[in-house]
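To the wet lab folks,

You asked to see what we're planning to order before we commit. Fair enough. Below is the target structure as tokens, and below that is the sequence we designed to fit it. If anything looks off to you, flag it before the synthesis order goes out.
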């Protein structure tokens, strides 16, 4: 057969599906009350962000002048608190939602790094990107283990 058509049965993509299936089979589901450290860190981050948003919304005078509103702050704090509870209860949707927020944070902080005016601001951006990326990566395995638990 030609190189463009390729032999699908023996190509490199065929081995990739087998490896993915083996990796899924090797994942051990979470124990009945097991909460990996990355999951607890995610709960803590969500809870702290919820509290910070709520305190900031309640204490900042003339919030509208800064581009916010009290109902918006209460809504955001409620969503973050709901995510924290869902993550603690090991719900896949909550971990997935938090991963989406982490990805957004990493992208926005990367863009902020491009326009950082001081070394301190750039260093803060690099730390935020590093910590967010680390937590994102650690939660990927937790999500796999949550899915393994649902399959069994």
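Sequence we intend to order:
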């Amino acid at each position: 057969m030609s190189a463009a058509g390729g032999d699908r049965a023996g190509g490199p993509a065929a081995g990739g599906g087998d490896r993915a299936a083996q990796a899924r089979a090797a994942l051990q589901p979470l124990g009945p009350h097991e909460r990996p450290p990355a999951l607890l860190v995610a709960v803590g981050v969500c809870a702290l962000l919820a509290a910070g948003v709520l305190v900031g919304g309640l204490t900042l005078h003339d919030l509208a002048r800064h581009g916010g509103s009290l109902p918006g702050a209460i809504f955001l704090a409620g969503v973050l608190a709901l995510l924290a509870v869902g993550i603690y209860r090991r719900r896949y949707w909550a971990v997935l939602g938090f991963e989406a927020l982490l990805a957004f944070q990493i992208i926005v902080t990367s863009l902020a790094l491009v326009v950082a005016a001081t070394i301190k601001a750039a260093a803060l951006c690099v730390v935020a990107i590093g910590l967010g990326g680390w937590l994102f990566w650690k939660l990927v395995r937790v999500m796999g283990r949550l899915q393994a638990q649902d399959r069994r």
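Structural context that might help your review: The mean pLDDT is 86. Residues 35-151 form one domain.

Thanks,
Computational group
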